[in-house]
């Protein structure tokens, strides 16, 4: 991949005006988000989005710009879009166009929420004019004409379009904009296009055929037809397809902002990060308890009954708390993509709920029914620390819930939620059991979800599986503690390992966050556990895919600035100052090193945090660093690692590093690594590992053989770099490789290599 290295952009600072202040007031008073930490996150997300928008002629010719806002699943992206619109209004943006999804249900949900927020902050209806699925009419034409004139209108109004992400809808607005009378693209005004779930439908699915897919092409044309200073903002939690687009494609993000999430947000990490959390919240559905789709003789799965029992008692508990939780309370069943399976599970669920209702309300069976519910009650209550709630206290609530109207509903293409009935759907009952597949796995917010039952085969595409995590979102602490996930083995494996994937991507982007195309830097990598893939194959070209290497080797340390090299050298001095006396001659007589077992994984985390790598190696370092941080069960802070100071043969005559330093300076342990000019224009890399050698009448093993079988291995090398002129290569190619000459530093530095015990399950993707 060709490295992209433009200068950092000239990001501007948006003004926070009355409209955005009204938005923050709405968030505090209507959404109940009042703590300073959360409010600052919401404010900074809006600022970071808008400061990456184009507002005037740019020296890089950015009159049309693509930006990406990377959020998390159900993390309030709609509220974030509203915040960006409110802030844009304060900064003289005059048009906002929102592509709200591919299904009417998603459009209805997003449109209602956007209008609710904007109307709340525009009580006098003086700021925003709304058009849903706009059609050509005199009123719209007049308002668009007024945008070009220096009249009062331009300072007081923003036109807000909301439309489906359908080819015809998008073309309709383009046709209005390009009419001879208007020619909107010639207007030197600021505008936004917000593409919700931008990784869905928007990428070009015919790239491999050298064509444009219809929706992709219509969005590109709409961007051209917008006013001159237009920013196309991609909003999604699953940006893998957008990272993999050719860097020259207009849909490839120019700049990226990464959302922070308030403390109230419950994400995948909250359920899966540690073994303790998984034992609390995640229940495994065994393979034998998942009926085959074509098995007409199958009975209701036992785990499904268990999940329903938990839903009933958890809901009863939630209404008995000192501060009762607000409805709705929802059970989400995601068994399969097949509609026939939705029907079968709906029948099982309805039959079981009716049976339980009859038993609870029948005096002859009531006691036995309640006794059976005490088991899930004890499990549910276990997470509520210091709870004094007894089953006797919730018995009446159990009966009330079963007597009430529990809304059991299939949602799929055959039984959709009609646009007009969206509000009524949640208002018809406090208790919901929803069965479905594709229609509820992306964009659609499942309100008040307490239980997720998902036995569906996850497939291979990681972004699709991540979007099924409807259990994420903003939750009251007790709501979270009462929630549970019933998942099959493959889904558990995915969500447990996906944490590293997401965290590594975010860290890699953050390091170049203010630069042009931070995801296109050389070395940007995305780890993912086997057998999963990043996304569907029709949205990207060929990928470089390799297994995670057991060794992390610093191979480009010669290109660091002298300042960074010095930081690494000082880091080595800090290590020796603290642990010098623990380094002893290795027990293996064929290893050229001093060995210590005193450093811990906690020490390694500190080293990786401070250790500087050349940009090509930032991503690999992030992978190893995040691997340790994400999986604290496997990599405990207190666990010792094996640390090796690699030295020459003369040094290991001494019993310890202390003994060596009594008669020798540390500088004598510094050895030289020469760099030979390559035959192509690529920067040469250094293999830090020496091979096996016969020296002093002894057969020394190579450095790659120096490691622990049971622990993380860390090798430390003190060295300096030089240039080799073997065979005249140096002299012949000096001018061509002057860049290398300038980057070479010939003073001492430190280099590290690491080996982890088992990385065979991980694959690394890059473009």
Walk me through the structure.
The chain is α/β, with parallel strands linked by helices. The chain has 3 domains: 19-258, Rossmann fold (3-Layer(aba) Sandwich), CATH 3.40.50; 265-291 and 300-418 and 428-498, no CATH class; 551-766, no CATH class. It is built from 25 helices and 27 strands. The strands form 6 sheets. Strands 3-4-2-5-6-1-7 form a 7-stranded parallel beta sheet. Strands 18, 19, 20, 21, 22, 25 and 26 form a 7-stranded mixed beta sheet that branches. The chain has a 6-stranded parallel beta sheet with strand order 9-15-13-10-12-11. It is globular, with a radius of gyration of 30 Å.
Q: What structural keywords apply?
A:
alpha/beta, Rossmann fold, 3 domains, seven-stranded parallel β-sheet, seven-stranded mixed β-sheet, globular, disordered N terminus
Looking at the structure, what is the overall shape? Answer: globular
Helix content: 25-40%
CATH topology of the largest domain: Rossmann fold
Radius of gyration: 30 Å
Strand content: 15-25%
Describe the structure concisely for a colleague.
With 767 residues, the protein is of the alpha/beta class. Helix content is 37%, strand content 18%.
Which helices and strands appear, and what pairs or packs with what?
Blueprint: H1 18-29, H2 36-50, E1 64-70, H3 77-90, E2 93-99, H4 104-120, E3 128-132, H5 138-146, H6 152-156, E4 158-163, H7 167-177, E5 190-196, H8 214-225, E6 229-236, H9 240-243, E7 255-258, E8 265-266, H10 268-272, H11 275-281, E9 282-285, H12 302-318, E10 329-333, H13 339-361, H14 363-381, H15 391-403, E11 407-411, H16 422-427, E12 431-436, E13 449-454, H17 462-467, E14 473-474, H18 477-482, E15 484-488, H19 489-510, E16 526-529, E17 544-547, E18 551-553, H20 562-579, E19 584-585, E20 593-596, H21 601-610, H22 618-630, E21 642-646, H23 657-663, E22 671-676, E23 693-695, E24 698-700, E25 713-724, H24 729-732, H25 738-743, E26 749-755, E27 762-766
Parallel strand pairs: 1-6, 1-7, 2-4, 2-5, 3-4, 5-6, 9-15, 10-12, 10-13, 11-12, 13-15, 21-25, 22-25
Antiparallel strand pairs: 8-14, 16-27, 17-27, 18-26, 19-20, 20-21, 23-24, 25-26
């Amino acid at each position: 991949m060709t490295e992209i290295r433009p200068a950092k952009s000239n990001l501007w600072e948006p003004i926070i005006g009355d409209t955005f202040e009204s938005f923050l007031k709405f968030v505090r008073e209507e959404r109940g988000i009042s703590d300073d930490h959360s409010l600052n996150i919401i404010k900074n997300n809006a600022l970071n989005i808008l400061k990456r928008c184009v507002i005037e002629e740019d020296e890089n010719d950015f009159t049309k710009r693509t930006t990406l806002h990377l959020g998390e699943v159900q993390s309030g992206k709609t509220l974030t879009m509203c915040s960006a619109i409110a802030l844009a209004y304060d900064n003289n943006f005059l048009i906002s166009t929102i592509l709200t999804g591919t299904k009417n249900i998603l459009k209805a949900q997003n449109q209602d929420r956007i209008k609710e927020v904007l109307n709340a902050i525009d009580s006098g209806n003086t700021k925003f004019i709304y058009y849903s699925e706009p059609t050509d009419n005199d009123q719209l034409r007049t308002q668009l004409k007024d945008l070009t004139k220096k009249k009062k209108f331009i300072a007081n109004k923003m036109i807000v379009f909301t439309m489906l992400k359908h080819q015809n809808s998008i073309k309709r607005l383009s046709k209005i904009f390009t009419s001879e009378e208007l020619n909107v693209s010639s207007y030197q005004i600021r505008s936004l296009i917000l593409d919700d779930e931008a990784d869905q439908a928007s990428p070009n699915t015919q790239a491999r055929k050298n064509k444009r897919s219809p929706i992709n092409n219509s969005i590109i044309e709409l961007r051209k037809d917008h006013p001159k200073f237009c920013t196309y903002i991609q909003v999604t939690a699953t940006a893998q397809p957008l990272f993999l687009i050719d860097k020259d494609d207009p849909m490839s993000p120019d700049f990226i902002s990464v959302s922070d999430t308030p403390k109230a947000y419950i994400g995948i990490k909250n359920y899966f990060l540690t073994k303790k959390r998984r034992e609390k919240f995640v229940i495994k559905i065994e393979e034998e308890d998942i009926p085959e789709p074509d098995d007409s003789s199958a009975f209701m799965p036992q785990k499904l009954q268990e999940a329903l029992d938990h839903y009933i008692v958890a809901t009863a508990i939630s209404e008995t708390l000192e501060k009762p939780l607000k409805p709705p309370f929802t059970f989400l069943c995601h068994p399969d993509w097949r509609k026939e399976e939705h029907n079968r599970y709906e029948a099982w669920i309805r039959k079981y709920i009716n049976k339980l209702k009859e038993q609870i309300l029948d005096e002859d069976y009531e006691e036995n029914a309640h006794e059976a519910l005490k088991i899930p009650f004890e499990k549910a209550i276990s997470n509520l620390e210091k709870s004094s709630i007894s089953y006797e206290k919730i018995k009446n609530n159990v009966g009330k819930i079963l007597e009430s109207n529990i809304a059991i509903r299939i949602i799929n293409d055959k039984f959709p939620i009609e646009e007009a009935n969206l509000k009524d759907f949640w208002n018809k009952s406090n208790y919901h059991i929803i069965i479905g597949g594709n229609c509820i796995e992306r964009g659609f917010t499942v309100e008040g979800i307490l239980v997720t039952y998902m036995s569906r085969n996850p497939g291979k595409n990681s972004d699709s599986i991540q979007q099924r995590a409807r259990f994420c979102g903003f939750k009251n602490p007790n709501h979270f503690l009462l929630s549970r996930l019933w998942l099959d083995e493959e889904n558990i494996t995915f969500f447990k390992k996906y944490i590293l994937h997401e965290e590594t991507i975010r860290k890699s982007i953050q390091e170049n966050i203010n630069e042009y195309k931070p995801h296109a830097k050389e070395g940007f990598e995305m780890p993912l556990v086997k057998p999963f893939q990043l996304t569907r194959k029709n949205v990207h070209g060929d990928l470089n895919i390799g297994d995670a290497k057991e060794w992390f080797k610093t191979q480009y340390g010669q290109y660091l600035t002298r300042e960074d090299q010095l930081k690494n050298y000082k880091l080595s001095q800090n290590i020796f100052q603290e642990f010098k006396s623990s380094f002893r001659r290795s027990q293996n007589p064929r290893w050229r090193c001093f060995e210590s077992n005193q450093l811990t994984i906690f020490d390694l985390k500190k080293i990786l945090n401070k250790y500087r790598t050349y940009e090509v190696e930032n991503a690999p370092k992030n992978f190893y660093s995040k691997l340790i941080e994400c999986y604290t069960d496997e990599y405990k802070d207190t666990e010792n690692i094996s640390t090796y100071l690699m030295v020459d043969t003369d040094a290991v005559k001494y019993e310890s590093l202390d003994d060596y330093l009594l008669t020798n300076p540390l500088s004598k342990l510094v050895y030289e690594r020469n760099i030979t000019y390559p035959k192509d224009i690529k920067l040469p890399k250094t293999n830090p590992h020496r091979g096996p050698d016969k020296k002093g009448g002894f057969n020394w093993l190579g450095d790659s053989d120096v490691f622990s079988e049971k622990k993380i291995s860390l090798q430390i090398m003190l060295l300096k770099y030089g240039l080799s002129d073997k065979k005249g290569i140096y002299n012949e190619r000096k001018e061509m490789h002057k860049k290398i000459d300038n980057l070479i530093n010939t003073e001492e530095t430190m280099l590290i290599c690491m080996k982890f015990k088992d990385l065979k399950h991980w694959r690394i993707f890059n473009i």
